[in-house]
Structures are given as structure tokens and as C-alpha cells.
Amino acid sequence: MTAPPGLQAEDRPDFERALHQALRTAEIREALRRNGATGDADVQRLRSQALVESEAIATAAAPEYAAYLRQRAAAAMSPSTAPVTPAPSAPSAPSASSAVGAPFPTAGVRGLLPVLAVLAPALAGASAASFLLLGGLLKLFHSQRELAEALLTAGLTSATIAAVTLAAGVACLLVTAVRHRTSAPDQHPRAQRLPYTHPPHVRRRNDAAVATARDAWLRALLHRGILPFLRDRLKISQKPSRLHQKSEKGST
Fold first, then answer.
1. 107 with 101: CB under 8 angstroms?
2. Distance of CA 31 to the CA centre of its chain
3. Buried b (16+ CB within 10 A) or exposed e, 217-245
4. pTM across the whole model
5. In whole angstroms, what is the distance from residue 157 CA to residue 102 CA?
6. Which residues in 145-171 are b (16+ Cβ under 10 Å) and which e?
7. Whole-angstrom Cα distance, residue 215 to residue 59?
8. What's the DSSP call for residue 223?
9. Which of 132, 182, 215, 228 has the highest count of CB atoms within 10 angstroms of its CB?
10. 14 to each of 66, 92, 164, 218, 244, how far by Cα in Å?
């Protein structure tokens, strides 16, 4: 037959809380009042006696304590007690794509092309409109005919540049859209290959089993261990006080 497990150091605070609860019960307080021990010093003396005999008191609830230790050890060894890490769904995809594109120096140029595709036609179109408008106004004056011809030529050149850059920008945007559309379905297989994590309710179930075993041990410790010990100590301390009262009555 194996010996009952001793009270572990991490469970001594639970023992002290159960002892504090026992000392505050109406039964123990009434017994202290009958013995004339109403001060804090008498309560602390009774508490100290219980702490000294904590190992002997704990043996009264040895089966429940052994079951509590087994349940706690099983929960500690279970992989479900490990912290559940969230699945890196959204942050992982950009990091993977950036890691692939980081070694290539053309990544910055590719990012600049859409900006140029938008700005170049707008700037060229604005310049063409300005040159054509100013050249048309100066053409009305015969003294500024050469400058007007130069401005009109510059306006036509800017209009040509605007048309070419606009066509190139539209083509660049279409290529970018097609590239993103073809790379989008690859995210789903990567999400399916993520490591399996235990659902949170598994850990909650293990924690609930440990808490149930702990409550059963504390109830057994209180009712079968601590309270009987306190009753015995109060009975022992009550006998000398009664003998002292009888001796005083006999002397009178």
C-alpha cells in the first residue's frame, strides 16, 4: 500500500485559506467564546497549532488530494495546455511576398511604374493644353508669330507624349491587375497548410476538471481534516478551564 502524498509547497496557500475559513465559522467562534478565548491571540495560537500539524491534517483528505494531483499532472502534460497561437492568416501573406521580392532590385521600379503611368499623361496633357492655348493667342499678333509657332509645336509634342504615356499606363494597369488575379488563389492552399492548433474549449475542459478536483479536495480537507482538528484542540483546552472553575467553587 502506497503512502498518501505529502502536502506540496504550492498547495500550502490553499491549506491556509481553508484554515482561515474554518476559524471564521460560527461553530469554532462559539467554541472559542465558551472557552473564554475571544481575543486574536487565542485564534492565532489555534491557527499556529493547525499549521504545525498540517501534514497530519492533510492525510484526512489524502484520496481527494491524490486525485487532484493526478488531474493537475495530466493537464500539465496535455498539449492542449500550451498557449494557443493565432493562425497567421493575414500578416503571413505579405511577409512571404515581400521576402520573395526583396532580393530583386527591380521591385522598386515596378512599384514606381503605376505612379508614372498616372502622373505622366496628366502632366503631358496639362502642358499640351497650356502650350496650344498660349500659342493660339500669340498667333493673333503678327509680331509674335515665330514664338506662337514654337508653342504650338511644343503643344502638339506634349499631346503626343500624353497619348503615348496614357496608352502605356493603361497597359501597365492591366498587367498589374492580371498579375494580382493570378496570384490570389495561392493564398488558400497556404492557409490550409498551417500547423494544427487545439481549439480553446479543450483547454477550458482540462482547466474545469482541475478546478473540480481542487474544490473536492478543499471540501474534504475542511470537513474531514481542519474542523475535526480544531474541535479536538478546543475540547482539550476546555477541560483545564472547567477544572479551574471547579477548584474556585470548592475554595469558596
1. yes
2. 49
3. bbebbbebbbbebbeebbeebeeeeeeee
4. 0.48
5. 38
6. eeebeebbebbeebbebbeebbeebee
7. 16
8. I
9. 132
10. 15, 44, 82, 8, 38
Question: What is the Cα Rg of the chain in Å?
Answer: 44
pLDDT digits (tens, 9 = 90+) for 168-211: 877 877 877 787 776 555 444 444 444 445 455 556 667 899 99
Cα–Cα distances in Å, from 84 out to 198, 199, 202?
7, 8, 11
- HEC string of 34-83 equals HCCCCCHHHHHHHHHHHHHCHHHHHHHHHHHHHHHHHHHHHHHHCHHHCC
Residue in this structure with the C-alpha cell 497549532, named with its chain if needed: 49
Q: Which triple of cell numbers denotes residue 77?
A: 502534460
* Residue ranges, the chain, pLDDT below 70: 1-5, 37-38, 79-114, 117, 142-143, 182-205, 238-252
